[in-house]
Structure formats: structure tokens, C-alpha cells
Please model this.
Amino acid sequence: MSISHLDPGRPRELSLPEKVWSINWGLVLLVSLLACVGFGTLYSAANGNWDPWASKQIVRYGVALAVMLVCAVVDLKFWYRSAYWIYGIAFLLLVAVEVRGAIGMGAQRWIDLGVIQLQPSEIMKVAAVLVLARYFHNIGIDEIGRPQLLIVPALLVLVPAALVMKQPDLGTALMLVLGGGVMFFLAGVRIWKFAILIVGGGAGAPLAWRFLKPYQKARLVSFLDPESDPQGTGYHSLQSKIAIGSGGPTGKGFLEGTQSHLNFLPEKQTDFIFTMLAEEWGLVGGLALLALYTLVIVYGYAIAFRSRSHFGRLLALGITVNLFLYVFINTAMVMGLIPVVGVPLPLVSYGGTAMLTVMYGFGLLMSVYVHRDARIGRPGDNEG
Amino acid sequence: MQQKKDNRRVKLLTRRAVLVAGGQGVLLALLAGRLYQLQIVEQDKYATLADEQRINLRLLAPPRGRIVDRFGVPLATNRQNYRVSLIADQVANVNATLDAVAVLIPVSDSDRRRVLREIKRKHSFVPIAIRENVSWDDMARIEVNTPDLVGVSVEQGLTRDYPLGDMASHVIGYVAPVAEKELTGDPLLELPDFRIGKNGVEKQHDLELRGNAGTAQVEVNAYGRVMREISRDEGSPGKQIALTIDAEIQEFAAQRCIAEGSVACVVMDAPTGDVLAMASVPGYDPAAFSAGLTNAQWNALLQDQLNPLSNKCVSGTYAPGSTFKPMVALAALANGISPDTRVTCPGHFQLGNSVWHCWKPQGHGTLDMHGGIMHSCDVYFYEMARRLGIDKFAEVAKRFGLGATLGIDIPGEKAGLIPTRDWKLATFGIPWQPGENISCGIGQSYVTSTPLQLATMVARLVTGKRIVPRLTRAAGVMRADQPLVEPAFEAMGVPQKDLNVVLGGMNSVVNEQGGTAYMARIKDPAMAMGGKSGTAQVRHITAAEHEHGVRKARQVPWIERDHALFVSFAPVSAPRYVCAVVVEHGGESAGGGSAVAAPICADILVELQKRDPARRVPDARVAADRLSTRS
Model:
């Protein structure tokens, strides 16, 4: 799995048709397949209607696909150069949500741009990966041991995470911190430093408890003891488990999911869409969807290892890990493995911003693939 | 140098990426394992939980059995009714929707207020009735416009319908919502719209009429709204109950009686004991009970002095007055007193220091038993009663059905009273006084009976058999192709010649000039009736009144006037039909029952003989016609 660095020549710039040709179309197909699973499930969620969800989702996917393809052919160096700008814009938007956020779903998460309700925290997930990839690209293997060099990237993750937490959006904050942590790990930060952090975090947990919102506390309590209040906070989790479990090995059939169609299952078109799929398609369908995601992740790793730039590798791995975190947190949540947190299932859940940012992430991933042979210099490098 | 560093960095990244990938692989396996646990290992548990949540068992009220007359004419049926209702959570603006409905069907302000009130009280998915009992046309107008009336629907229900209305209310009874104390634990009774029989045949045969509840498994959504039906067990509808009543005669009798105020009338087919009509007027509207009475309606019924709530035919106990005299006559004959025994009536009768008056102050002169019955001479029967003593004629009266319930299958039957020496001692602790024989001998004093008992008495007189009245036909509806089966009743054991003396006297009461009911006779000889009039004192007549003349009836308040009675049978030549009538406070004249009650009997008996419901089944087409016009 080592990467060849023997080619000394500077690769020439690719023309646009060459770039388009070199896009990883297998990955595009996989991503589209996942989106189609989403369309079908949304069609079922609306009791066999394209409206109100599936049709809008298809339009959004069309737009997002275009965004992805454009991002794919944009030079990786451009992404490298504009990493701080993109992060800066995402950060400003996040602050703007705090300042004049519209109320949605009981949490201030949206900026209404008229055309689309923008969720800056979703953008931040990609922006953070982008900015950390650039930062660590520029830190040499010898410098990574210096703790003072870790302060800036730590702030780049923790400040937006704190803002998201304040919204309050525990799920996204968790994803930011975990995704950032994995970037630190991949960059080569010593494992004992993570150990200290985890131990310290464990000790600080009681303190953190005090900062949780009442509904977040309730979710944690209901996760630990789901039978305590089946009509209250444990309701979502229990209903989700009932729906999945009653699906059995082969499911109840398309459009036949009783628990979701009878509204026992809440949020069946967004965060709990996996539940609905697993109810209607059973273990077979659930595993098939997980397999699709696994394939996409494998692609992500392959792209990372094919890249000749450290920035590209970190970016590809960061985006892949982020996708995995989305999938894992969402499915683990609906199966009652972790408390209920608001994380959508990428490409499948109904929602504009998540779709757009996930596809933007894939666009960056593909840009890494298209420009796999590009070299990106570091300050002090002769490559400039 | 730089190359080396890069190589080290790539190796570190690769190592770490493999570690991360390994971690992801473990977590993905965990997800797959969890999915396996939920969907394979614990599938049964969650499938059961899912079904428990979404499937509700609902009880289906069985359609109540019909009550029909002897020929199948419906007396109580279920009418499909249409109800326009609104489901609040499907309606954007309740007032606008009500306005839209009001364009199509009448919606009053009180309807509107009620709907708005109920919306606040009930679950938003529960249908709320805008209007009940909507006509077919109105229903159709709503149905046609349903696309524009989101949340408005037409629902079907069954209401109990009584084609004869208040003319048979006491026999049929009524159904009404179940009261708290009537709950037995049977969940059927707890259904919101369920009605049970509260009176009459509806109450007596309630369990048969009710049928067995069905069940439906319905799927409900998270808010409890029914989404679809999964399975259905219809249960079994209630049984049809066929009565001995002839709806046409019942209607005729009730209409004939209503003009006279408060009247009880029992019409029987003597050989079978079939009650052909049982009219207690005024009646009430049985359908109103099913819908639910207002307090004002209920109080009006309770306070009405014509007593519409009581079935006077079985619950009203009246002094039989002179209609009792045939019993005394039969007792006399049975005790060796010859029918030729003559008694002279000077207009009064003396025993010890007490004086009893004959209804005819100037006296009847000398009479034998036939004359005594024909002229209803009180003195003749005072003398008979004196000779016999109470126990002798009480025994005959009891054998003819007085003083005890007859077991008619309708609630509220009273026993009346035939006193005996033992009874008085046991009840009051005082021995029987000889003077008491005298007033009991003309059916006054302690003697009381119900109109049903009087009709039965006459049925036993004319047949010589121990006829038991019945209201329901176990064999079902009469059919032209089925032979008439007359139930076998045991003989009374009274010699026919004795019965003939009494029946002859009753013939003369009506058909011989000078008889007390001669004015009411049926002039067609083939249909002629025999009968006996009676007057039941409601108020004790004081000595002073005898002295100064009894006040004219019109001077007496209605409630204090005597009851007028008449018992009758027809045709005289071969008696078949029996009719007993009590007109409460109808004793206007000295003739008592002859003036008011006898003409009612005559009219009913003429109608009966023309129709002959005991032996003739009406043309099926005619019956079908009647059916369609009534229901």
C-alpha cells in the first residue's frame, strides 16, 4: 500500500475533457445509487407519493450532483489555497446563525437564504476537514510532536464545535470533534496524547453534563434506561427499534411498513429514514445499504492512497471518515446503540444542506482523484 | 532528505489510515450485528410490540332484532340513519367548513355551538356529528360535494324505528342508552351508541333481540385514528320476535280509545289466548327515548295526569265493579243456588244497621239471575254475596284469572287483588266483616283487577278453558300455508250450563232492550257482542251524598270521577274475540261503562270480526304494501 514517489517529473496540467474523463465514474454511480435508495424510501415515506419529499430530493440531488462534478474538476490547488477562506465563510455563517438564526426544529440551525435553508454546521463539517488537511499538510513529520503547533488546529475544531453545541446540536458537534480528532490522528499526533485527552475528557464529563440542555440530558437518560418513559423521551428510540425489529429478515415490503406509515415512527423522512428502510426491506435491505456505504468508504481510501499530495490524502481520508461518522452515528442511533442525536443519513435522509455538503465533500474527494498526481508544495519547499 | 521525510510521513499516514479503517470495519460489523440482533434474534418480540400498538380490537354492535306483528308487519325496526360529521383535525377552518355545509343542509346556530363545544372536549380525530338523522336528499347533497368538504363525512348508523309510534308504545316499549347501574361487565353495553330495551317487549326479550357482538380488528395509527380494517367477525344479529299483536287492530284500538282520554284496552283471541291488541292511551313516542329525552320532556311525561308512562293494561289495577258480577253468579251456581232464584230489589239493601244502594235508586223489582246480570242489579248480587261469603266467590274469581299475575311476557304486570278471609286477617290482623261481602260482591272495596285480567276472565268464560294470554308467538309469523295450531288449554271444570246462564245474561246486557249496554249493541246479528258493564268508584260516596243525591259527574273534578269499564265478546253465537276496556274517570253517567266503554268495545269487535286476524292471514301483497309504507 505504499505510494510511488519515484516519478521526478512535474506532471503537466490536465485539460478539462481529460479531467472529466478521469473522474471516478464508478464512485459517481455508487453515490447515485445511494441517492436512489433515498428517493425510493422517501416515496414510501409519503405513502407512495413523490410529493412532498421524493420529488424535491431528486431536484436537490440533481443540483448537488452538478456541484459535485464542478468541484471534481476544480484544481486541487485551488481547494488548497482557498481552504482558510472557505473555513472562514463557514465560520461566519455559523456565527450568523447565533446572531439571527431562524427557529427550526426547536434548534437554531438555519439561515434562510430564500432559495435554501442553509445549515452552516453541515458546511463546517467539510470546511473543518479542508482546513485541517491544509494545516497538517504544512506540518512536517518532525514538527508534529510539538504541542504548541496543535493549539491552532485544535481551536479550528473546538470553537465551531462549541458554537454548534450551543445551537444546540449535539450530533453535529460530536461529529466535528470526532472527525477533527481522526484528522489529528492521521496527521501523526502521538497516540498517548489522545489517551490523555480521553482520560481527561472522562474526568470532565460530569462538568460537561452541566452544560447540556434539558432535552439532551433526557435523551442520554432515556438511552441508558429506555423503558423508563416509553411515551416520553425514550419513545423515539423504542419506536425505532420496534420498527426495525418487526421488519425481520426480509422486511414487510415496499410501502408496507406499518410502524412508519402509521406514524408510530417519528421523523421517518429525515433522521429515522434507515429505520423505515430496515422495516420495509428487513435485514437484507439494511445490510445492503451498509454494504453500499462500505464500498464508498473503500473508494475513499483508495483515492487517498492514490494521491501524491499529503493535502489530497488527508482531505480524502477526512471526507471518508466524515461519511463514515454520518453513517455510523445515524444508524447506531436508530438501532438504539447510542443516544438519539440529530444526524442525518447521508444521501438518503431528506434535507437540502446535508445533501449539498455531502456532495460537496464527494466533489473534493473526486478532485483529489482527478488531480491525484498533482504535487502541492509547502512553504520552504522548492515546489513552491 | 525531504524525500525521506515525505516517505516517513506517508508510511505513518498509511499505518494510521489502516488503523482507522480497521476501527471502522469493527464498528460496521457492530452495526451489522446489531441489525441481526434486532431483526433476527428479537424479531418476534418487536413484531408483537408492533402489532399491539397498531391493532385494536373493536366490538361491533349487532343489529337489533326486529319486532313484528303476527303477520310480519314491523313494529320495531332498525332504520338506516345518516349523520353528517366533521373530523376536526382534517378541517383547516371549522367555521368556514360549517358555513359550506350550511349551504347544502340546514345547520342551526345551536348545532354550530354544539359542534364547536364538542371539538374542544373530544379528541381531534373523533368524528363530531353536525346533524343526525339527515334525509336521503341532504345526505346525497353532502356526498356529491365531499371533494370540496375536506373533513366532512356522512356516516351510517342504525336507529330504532317504531312504525306505530305512540299507538303501541307500551307493548313494544323502547330502547335507550345503558344506565350506569345496568352495566354487567359485558363490553357490548359500554359501546357509546348502544341501546338496550327499557320497557315492553324490548325489555322482556332484550337478550334475544340484542344478538351477539361481533369484533373487528382495526389498524390504528399513532394518534389512534382507524386506518383500515384487518378482519371482521360480524357476530350474529338479534333474533326477530313475532308478537301475537295485529298491528292493524292495535292501531285501530289505540285510535278509537284516544278520544276518551286515559284508556286501557285489551283485545284477545279467546281460544288461543293471543293478545291481538293492547292499547294504553295516551302513549308516548318510543323513538324519543332512543334519541334521549330532555328533562323537560321527561318531566312532562311524569306529571301528565293521563299517566302516559304506565301500561294501564297490565299495571293499572281497577275495581272491576259490575264486570265482576259474572264471577259471583258462577259461584252462586256452583254452590247450588238456582239461576231461577229470585231477589227483589227495592233500590237498596240492608244488613244489620248498614244500607247499600243499588245503582238504580228506584229499584229493579224482582229479578232472577239472568235479569240480575242483564240489569246489573246491585241488590241481586249483594244478596248472592251475602249468601256465599267472600271465600266462595273469591275462589271462582281466582280460577278465572283474577288476583294473580298471568305471566304475560311484558314487564310491569300487576296481580290486582281478590280478598279472602285469611288474606284480611293476615294483612290487617282484623277478621272479615260480613258487610265486606256485600261491597266485594259488586267488585268494589278490596277487589281490584287489571284490564288484561278482565279480558282473560271473559276468554275463560266463553271457552270454558283456562286460557293464558300470550304476547309472543314462539312459532313465528303466521303464514297462509301453515295450519292454525291452537294451544291446548285445560278445561275450567265449570259446567257448561252454568257458563250459559252467565253468557246469556251478558248477551241480554247488550242485545235485549233494557240491558245496560243496549245502546252500544252491534246491530249486525252475525257480529253481535255480549258484554258486561262496570263502574269503578274512585272515591267513597258519602252517606250525605246518598241523602242529597250524588253529584252529577260533570260537577266532580275529572280525577275524582269513576272509571268506566266494559268487558265483551263476539260473536255471541260462537264467541271468539274478547275485548276489555277501562276508561279512567270515564264514568259520566249512572250507566257507568255502558256509555263510554261499551261503544269502544263494539267498534273494535266489529273491526276485529271483519278482519278476523285469528284465522285469516292477510294477502301477502297487502302485507308487503303495509310494510313499505310503514318503514
